[in-house]
Specification:
It contains two helices and two strands. By secondary structure, the protein is of the alpha+beta class.
Length: 89
């Protein structure tokens, strides 16, 4: 897909969705000749569109941080259910 056809498709889809929703924000990427391209289109309430995009980034960052922390934080050792603690040194 080239940029011109992507713009046309995004405009059509954003307009169609905008008939049913107060705010629509679409973000897309595609690769062409080894390069990555991106476009965004939105219709409706600008403040809602900005808030949706910010929330998406915030939640994604939070999930990524939680995942990284879970790998770093040591897990507690399982309880020792054996009787070795009863034996004198």
């Amino acid at each position: 897909m080239n940029e011109a056809s992507a713009k046309i498709l995004l405009d059509q889809m954003a307009s169609k969705l905008g008939e049913h929703f107060e705010a629509v924000q679409i973000m897309v990427t595609w690769q062409e000749n080894g390069q990555t391209f991106g476009l965004k289109r939105g219709v409706g309430n600008w403040y809602a569109r900005v808030a949706m995009a910010q929330e998406m980034v915030s939640i994604d960052r939070s999930c990524d941080m939680a995942s990284q922390l879970s790998r770093v934080i040591s897990k507690p050792e399982p309880p020792d259910d054996g009787d070795s603690w009863k034996k004198p040194d």
